[in-house]
């Protein structure tokens, strides 16, 4: 099939998970023999094997300008159009099949974000998600909780993880207790809060522990016990998971939370705050530890000194991660691209 994929974000220009997922899906589809073009406001990803079309934007409302410019692109030569956002103006059929993935809820983010301007922007984007769910032939959500604001969207297809890359390798585990974080120091990922909890609750009891942070906005000197890794390549990130004894991402909101699934696929126990994505990925805490923010440090401390509990969570997490295998996710999307009959089979 000839597939057009829309994603404002790509790993070449943004750390946002939607862009990484679009990149992974497009790559796997090309490996399966499909012809894929990605339309994005970000530059091409170095080494990408799919086609890339740059949709240039500018100004403060760049995502809205991106959506408006998509209206002028001819998608009629594609068998399927798969949008990861910004397709709410494409109400006229543009390709044989139009699929929309809703990766979370901007309404949910608006409830938590600070600043009147950002809250207003999130509310506008929330309404655009609702409109997009009606414009597409088929809309899907990445977790059941995402349906709160679009209850008519019944189909759930989770985000996918390449389990050939993110896989356990006990031989690479760090000799000393290591916690991994993947996210941002500020805003909803709450890296700064994790760093404080680690230094307050973990280091006094486990003085040889290290918190490794895959983070680009951390301060130059985040304090004792913390090592900032910055931005990593795909292989470096996989190796960071394999080194870790535990993974922690205490976000106040995730629609899914791809790093949780990556960690579980790599055999790393997950500790998270009970945001909607973490609850779904960890199967309500059966395959991970869910705790309020003020208990995160204590839970990490407990896990680092309890080898049996780590083993139990490694097994439970690895089993749960099978549900998020990229191959299964792409199977589901291929069925949608072919039409309702194939998707229902």
UniProtKB/TrEMBL annotation:
InterPro entries given in the database record: Glyco_trans_4-like_N (IPR028098)
Glycosyltransferase subfamily 4-like N-terminal domain: residues covered: 17-165
Classification via Gene3D superfamilies: Glycogen Phosphorylase B
UniProt keywords, alphabetically: Glycosyltransferase, Transferase
Protein name: Glycosyltransferase subfamily 4-like N-terminal domain-containing protein
Organism listed in the record: Gryllotalpicola kribbensis
